[in-house]
Design brief:
By secondary structure, the protein is mainly α. It folds into two domains: 89 residues, no CATH class; 37 residues, no CATH class. Helices cover 53% and strands 3% of the residues. The protein is built from eight helices and two strands. The protein has a two-stranded antiparallel sheet. The longest helix is centred in the middle third of the chain and has 13 residues.
């Protein structure tokens, strides 16, 4: 899929968290009717193994509550501050573990087979893709990890 204007890399951080900003981008784009249809089935908590659901569990908030707060307006940092207030703050160690896990998802773990399957489905064999974040970046015409 080509790049989606306004949709950042999952590697990009808001505060101390990777992926959170991308989830906010998807919420905002969806609310504005600008999120490609291919992305809609991956929104929220409907698919527990996907990043939105994992992120909501990590910040201890329901996706619908995060959507309501995000579309109400405010910067990424304001939404994150709200999330920390409602779901509780995360320690530096919590954030380190979250970031390490998410940026390596698919590399020698329970998701490795699924990542290899997706690489084949997308026709990306032979590309330098080691994680799901890398796959997203390559799929959206970005160099993996280049923010």
């Amino acid at each position: 899929m080509p790049s989606v204007p306004g949709l950042r890399s999952p590697y990009a951080k808001v505060g101390r968290l990777v992926y959170f900003g991308r989830m906010l981008d998807k919420i905002r784009l969806h609310a504005a009717g600008k999120l490609p249809a291919d992305y809609v089935s991956n929104l929220g908590e409907a698919r527990p193994g996907l990043c939105d659901a994992r992120c909501c569990r990590f910040i201890r908030l329901a996706y619908c509550d995060l959507v309501a707060r995000t579309v109400a307006g405010g910067t990424d940092e304001e939404v994150l501050a709200w999330a920390n207030e409602k779901g509780g703050p995360r320690s530096d160690d919590d954030c380190l573990i979250w970031n390490s896990h998410m940026t390596r998802l698919g590399w020698r773990d329970e998701a490795s087979q699924r990542l290899q399957q997706r690489i084949r489905e997308y026709g990306f064999e032979g590309r330098s893709i080691e994680t799901f974040f890398d796959l997203v970046d390559v799929d959206e015409d970005r160099t993996p990890g280049a923010i």
